[in-house]
Amino acid sequence: MAEMEETDFNDILDDWFIESLKTYKDLHVYQLEHPTQVIEWTSGRTVCVAGYSSSKNEILELHLPLKLFADENKGLCAERDFKVVHGGFAEGPVCCLRHVPGTRCVVTNDGLSSDLQVWTVGGDDSDVIRRTGSVKGRRSVSEGGSRIAAPLSSQLLHGARSSDVQLTQLTSGQILYTLETDSADPLSSLQFVSDTVFLAGCCNGNVYIADTRTSAAPQLSPGPAAWGGSVLWWTDASAGRVIRLSSSGQAVVSDLRDLGEAVSWAQLDVQSHRCNPDDVRVSWAPALDNCIAVSGFSGAVQIYKTSVWGTERQDVQPLFEHRGHAVSSQSDDDVFVTAHVWHPERPRTLLSAASDGSVHVWDWVDQSEL
Amino acid sequence: MPEIKVTPLGAGQDVGRSCILVSIGGKNIMLDCGMHMGYNDDRRFPDFSYITQNGRLTEFLDCVIISHFHLDHCGALPFMSEMVGYDGPIYMTHPTKAICPILLEDFRKITVDKKGETNFFTSQMIKDCMKKVVPLNLHQTVQVDDELEIKAYYAGHVLGAAMVQIKVGSESVVYTGDYNMTPDRHLGAAWIDKCRPDILISESTYATTIRDSKRCRERDFLKKVHESIERGGKVLIPVFALGRAQELCILLETFWERMNLKAPIYFSTGLTEKANHYYKLFITWTNQKIRKTFVQRNMFEFKHIKAFDRSYADNPGPMVVFATPGMLHAGQSLQIFKKWAGNEKNMVIMPGYCVQGTIGHKILNGQRKLEMEGRSTLDVKLQVEYMSFSAHADAKGIMQLIRMAEPRNMLLVHGEAVKMEFLKGKIEQEFSIDCHMPANGETATVTTNPSVPVDISLNLLKREMALGGPLPDPKKPRTMHGTLIMKENSLKLVSSEQALKELGLNEHQLRFTCRVQLQDPHSDPDTLNRIYTHLKSVLKGYTIQHLPDGTVMVESIVIKVSSSAEDTSTKVLLLSWSYQVKHFYFYNVISSNTRAVKRLILIAINRQISIVNHD
What we know:
The complex is a heterodimer of chains A (about 375) and B (about 625).
Chain A: H1 3-10, H2 15-23, E1 24-31, E2 40-41, E3 46-50, E4 57-63, H3 66-69, E5 82-90, E6 96-100, E7 105-109, E8 116-121, E9 129-135, E10 147-149, E11 155-159, E12 166-169, E13 175-178, E14 187-192, E15 197-202, E16 207-211, E17 219-221, E18 233-238, E19 241-246, E20 250-255, E21 264-267, E22 281-284, E23 291-295, E24 301-305, E25 320-322, H4 324-328, E26 337-342, E27 349-354, E28 358-364
Antiparallel strand pairs in A: 1-28, 2-3, 3-4, 4-5, 6-7, 7-8, 8-9, 10-11, 11-12, 12-13, 14-15, 15-16, 16-17, 18-19, 19-20, 20-21, 22-23, 23-24, 24-25, 26-27, 27-28
Chain B: E1 3-10, E2 19-24, E3 27-31, E4 63-65, H1 71-74, H2 77-85, E5 90-93, H3 94-114, H4 123-131, E6 133-136, E7 142-143, E8 148-154, E9 162-168, E10 171-175, E11 199-203, E12 209-210, H5 214-230, E13 234-238, H6 244-259, E14 265-267, H7 269-281, H8 288-296, E15 305-307, E16 319-323, H9 331-340, E17 347-350, H10 359-364, E18 369-371, E19 377-379, E20 383-386, H11 395-405, E21 409-413, H12 421-431, E22 434-436, E23 444-447, E24 455-456, H13 458-466, E25 483-487, E26 490-494, H14 496-503, E27 511-519, H15 524-538, E28 544-547, E29 551-554, E30 557-563, E31 570-578, E32 583-585, E33 602-605, E34 608-610
Helix pairs in contact in B: 2-4, 3-4
InterPro entries (chain B): Beta_Casp, INTS11-like_MBL-fold, IntS11_C, MBL, Metallo-B-lactamas, RibonucZ/Hydroxyglut_hydro, RMMBL
Organism (chain B): Sander lucioperca
Cofactor (chain B): Zn(2+)
């Protein structure tokens, strides 16, 4: 074969590509015009993404490729593309985007103030996402944006710091609950663990647990003793377990009812080249036992199995690493993953987005089960 | 106002057949003439009754342009030219001209022989139609007639696909046909210069999609082939001679080498001869890399891929075979299919669209029992895989093309109406141009602003410069006055005096007069004087003169006073002004006592309005 053909195909037949034939069931690679920091499910088959540049940005609702869902007749379906089902424009960056369950509304925050923008994602008659309202944050000025959680179809829990978290009635704007805390710790996450009980994860590792039905003081669980200087923490809770991850790669699993005690520890293999509080994500797999996904430290998304962790802190290796973004990147700068989400039902399907505008949909193979 | 009219007859909110009519500068052009592959009746043809209710189309059309050989762009061409009737020129690129008749003939055979249709074009009609074709080269301006010119640009997508610029005078339209903005393995990406057409007509079938990378499509292909081979199965890949076949061969060859695979890969000889023939002819149409290889050697000379012999189909063990025709409707690919269909370890990979009536179409629709000749049925047990490798522009691609061409208006065809509001808004916002999306049969009218070049006399220019003020600039044009003279074919802007001189005309002055009565017991000269003094005090900044001939002049307005014959205290003011004075309102209330004019004069002189409200 002539030389030109070899170089031409070496770029696609690289090691990662060859490996991917065995390590992924499905793999889809897309390039958005602008990178996104948010991926949010709006249904079992659609997600919203949005730009985060300082001026005008697009919010897009994308339908996942039909081929991914065509389980029986997969071979007969050639549809591999994302369909842009709805689109709209935001005046500023979108740093947080939350779908309000049971509605066609999404709520966004620009990371500059604590106010939220409310959008209606058009129905079948229109493909436009329109701004239909706003929700005022408790304190208007804040550095770092608000986190948002939406438990039911009419309420929003939001705040940028532990001192300004409130539950707002979406339609009337009425404030139903406010979190009263002594300190104003910047938040890295806000999520509901039941209909009314929520977790506010702070960047300093503190976790508040409160019930929106009561005015009782929230339960405070201080951050784990961190080794390695001042660190930032991220939290995720699911099915009674809570995981906390630090910017130095330290991970702690606890039981929700007893946050003070650590069930297991580990030192993750995250090469933290850089660490932006906005980009790190840690999440429990919704349909797999004891699996977490970690991203934001580099151009990879790592899957870890927490059931093999012990009570002594030890170095652990990921069960799987998705390096697609780093490998496929066309840009000269180091690409890093800005967001990832698990599919709510398909056990090993994830979506991930990176700083170069790439979005991947992948269904990985658990080699340990082979 | 000059305008360009665009009417989609097919495409325009309906995926399936492209046929667009454009009226520009008094010329009528038909862009593409596709067949809708989903219909079996007349709906598959574009509705030509829009052009004329009955009769031939020749006198209504100046030319027809075909963008590429896909049936949804040229499938109805023989029907249009031979059954409806059109004898004018049909323009297309050389490769399209070579390949079109082959596809049309295949399509005709399937429709007539397999489906038994009667109202369809014949082989002879295809030949007659192709006789009317005038081939185009890239970037070469072709004069269709004295006023209409066209130029083809590279579109990528498939071999020979072109985007076309149509120009009449200073108005132009660019039609994209199908194109893609990312280079392929064997084709380059579409390219056009900043030609700034009045309208860019673009395909938008995939405008609302974000395409999965080529890498992933290729990965899927290799994964499927590999899995079949590993379990000892045989893989049939029916292909059309051109384009994808060659690309997929190169892909497999590299993969086989990399993975050190031993299973044989074959391609049928008919395939290679045809492919080589076409590539030789159209070498300039493939990308640089392919060209380089081809110059050195026969492009189907592979280490792992060999020529096929029909007896190999019965050999045991795994193998991969590329065979024609692409839709499994006849010939070698169908024969091999029949042999291998019964084994579930085997696989058939369809790399493209299959026309209704073919076996390919049936199996892609999930049919597992096929009726063959002689009433026998074939059980389809092998794995059927449909893979799409076609290259289309997506939302990002459309934006890139608009950035390249810089059109004044955008028109989207071939998409789904309702679901493009967002893209329309996006285009309008980013480029500040209008975006039209006409439905089938609906005409979009775009008014153009053609620039007319005019010579300007040096004196006029100098005079204008002497007036001072900012220099004219593309963002802030400066208005100036002059007279436009058209002599022979040239236009000239000159001063009015020069125009009069050149035309041998005398200048006329228009003056208007009105008479106003007022009561004033003073003498005529005194009244005039009072008026003069009063005006001088209220109309500051204007030239007011009291002339020795007994008139007062306010700029160019002349005021005279005379007494009425019957009563000397009834004064008549004669006001006279030239045509330059735009508005002149005289509002006067005369007091009963001896005071002179109390309320006064609103005078607009030239373009300035001075409001004087004086109590």
